[in-house]
């Protein structure tokens, strides 16, 4: 997937934040599994780090790319509007794919609970970010992607953490349904964005 | 005259403003100046040419096919992300332009006094404009589209920049389109003039014939000029001053009349006055 060129320093910082959050999360999940103590509050907080740090960080990075003057410069430099739209949705699609793979892994391991609940928050974040991207590609304003891509993931992270800590679990079928629904939202937004962005004055 | 950029019947509607059936020729090897008052449609026309604005109708034809990365642009506002550092900009541009010349970029930044660690947003307006010029000059181009490129530059930097543009078109293979309020700058480099008002092209011709065609008539002589020659006029304590067209015919009709040369600025200002009459 071609990514719209952007500041390498900013990209490094974003990826660094995501990598640290993901590493902490994976370590926490591994510990939870090995000890079989799903009630451990500290480990749960670590496990939900990607939703608290990585998802908003990625959304901020996306939002910084969505600037009409920068898009205008890129268009004048020969980068097509279609490429730009695909680039905006690249992260959403990558997250969807990652969750689909993790669901498949969970299904194979028959360990339900942790991933499904986390996936739900992630999927809803991806869907809300896609709506923000759609907003930019039809209006030229990245305000919605700022709001939807940052506040929604943080709110969802808190909600999913509370639900999980309270012992709420979701079945594999429910998680799969959420995945399908999110994929439908992302696909619809991407399709509408391509049409809108083609006519957008930058 | 080889075809550079040809704008035909361009129509674009915005909220409260329209580009109305714009026709203009911007020959290859020429510097074409797009001039006019604020809100005349200059930036909109330039943005249509570079593809930022999508025209409602009409066509823009390029003599040399517009290849990706072969258009250099300078916007009136710096388009680079404000958080990006000058050094990082070079790395980003190397991903956009195949023939990016990082050494040339660094050299130009040094020359313009722009340090590699500065963030774009922390630069002054003049330096941001120079940064855009440095980027534009560091990759190969067939077309240059410049919107108010000299705004914020001191006289020395402006002179240097204009010299660079002159050199750029000297091989007669490239096309430059420039919009500016600094008509004195344009008089030094422009070969072709496109005058815009209220979203329309009022005139499009080469600068030399334009300067030959228009003249200024002052005081009592101005009162004698037949109305069909008058483009616009102004009144002051010293009497009337009128911009006249078809200067040769007027001189033949009134051999004793003193007709002074009109500057590009006079032509713009009096056209605007004539429009308001």
Kindly report the oligomeric state of this protein: heterodimer
The total strand number of chain A stands at 0
* Count of helical stretches of chain A: 8
Rg of chain B, nearest Å: 21 Å
State the order of secondary-structure elements of chain B, H for helix, E for strand: EEEHEEHHHEHEHEEHEHEEHEH
Kindly report how far apart the N and C termini of chain A lie: 23 Å
| Average pLDDT for all residues of chain B | 90
Report on this model:
- The complex is a heterodimer of chains A (202) and B (277).
- Chain A has one domain (8-198).
- In chain A, 82% of the residues lie in helices and 0% in strands.
- Chain A contains 8 helices and no strands.
- The model of chain A has no long low-confidence stretch (mean pLDDT 76).
- Chain B has 277 residues and is of the alpha/beta class.
- Chain B has a 6-stranded mixed beta sheet, sandwiched between helices.
- In chain B, helix 2 (86-96) runs antiparallel to helix 3 (102-111).
- The two termini of chain B are 36 Å apart.
- The model of chain B has no long low-confidence stretch (mean pLDDT 90).
- The A-B interface holds A 5-10, 64, 67, 69-70, 72-79, 198-202 and B 14, 47, 50-54, 66-71, 73, 75, 77-81, 83-85, 88-89, 91-93, 95-97, 145.
Quick overview:
The complex is a heterodimer of chains A (202) and B (277). Chain A is mostly helical. Chain A contains eight helices and no strands.
